[in-house]
Specification:
Elements: E1 3-7, H1 18-35, E2 41-47, E3 58-64, E4 67-72, H2 79-99, H3 110-128, H4 141-152, H5 162-167, H6 178-193
Parallel strand pairs: 1-2, 2-4
Antiparallel strand pairs: 3-4
Length: 213
């Protein structure tokens, strides 16, 4: 296994949670690599209030298929507890992206983005058994129906508006977290129709396979 954690802390802002990050990382990795064949990944943890998820206190993104970034809001109240409870989920999510080569340095269609996010979140649930996150079920049934119809027109578009579809746009009337919720629902429907499957063995399945009649 060649997976390494790098905590950037020259400013000292992560000193109070550095051990918690390391311990949570050490506990999470064996479970994740037992489930999926991910390897050769550097995990870089750094302090960033802006890039952290507001209600979690930290966030993550896959910079490349071999680099995962973890952003931490050092001022978040309850940060230690949140890291202990949720870092494994975030690592599972981002490592799944690495395995499917879904990262900031790759160009995707909207369909690919939806399915990759949905698969990563379902895999995180498989690994952690935690409740769903807010972004997984952020839409009403009525909203989902209308928005999936709109999204379908852009499924093959490599130049879709990622910010609008995943983080919302008042101008385009797209609610916050729409892409995450649509992708989570699409993968959920696939899993219902294929009960023998689980996210950990779907990492090689093309996004198009999740389009159900």
């Amino acid at each position: 296994m060649n997976i390494k954690l790098h905590i950037l802390n020259t400013n000292g802002k992560l000193t109070g949670v550095e051990k918690i990050i390391q311990d949570s990382f050490d506990q999470a990795i064996p479970t994740i690599i037992q489930a999926i064949p991910v390897d050769n990944v550097d995990v870089v943890c750094y302090e960033s209030i802006i890039r952290a998820i507001p209600h979690v206190g930290f966030g993550g993104y896959s910079l490349t298929s071999n680099i995962v970034m973890i952003t931490v809001n050092s001022q978040f109240e309850g940060l230690s507890e949140s890291l202990q409870q949720n870092l494994k989920r975030t690592l599972a999510h981002e490592f799944y992206h690495c395995l499917r080569h879904y990262a900031h340095d790759t160009k995707q269609t909207l369909l690919s983005a939806l399915i990759n996010e949905g698969l990563a979140d379902h895999f995180a649930l498989e690994i952690t058994q935690l409740p769903t996150e807010k972004w997984d079920m952020a839409l009403t049934p009525g909203q989902s129906k209308g928005l999936i119809s709109r999204a379908s027109k852009e499924f093959n578009n490599h130049n879709y508006n990622h910010t609008a579809w995943f983080f919302g746009s008042k101008e385009l009337n797209i609610p916050h977290w729409t892409g995450y919720s649509l992708g989570f629902a699409m993968v959920g429907e696939y899993l219902k129709k294929h009960p023998e499957s689980k996210p950990s063995n779907l990492y090689q399945i093309p996004a198009e396979n999740f389009l159900l009649d």
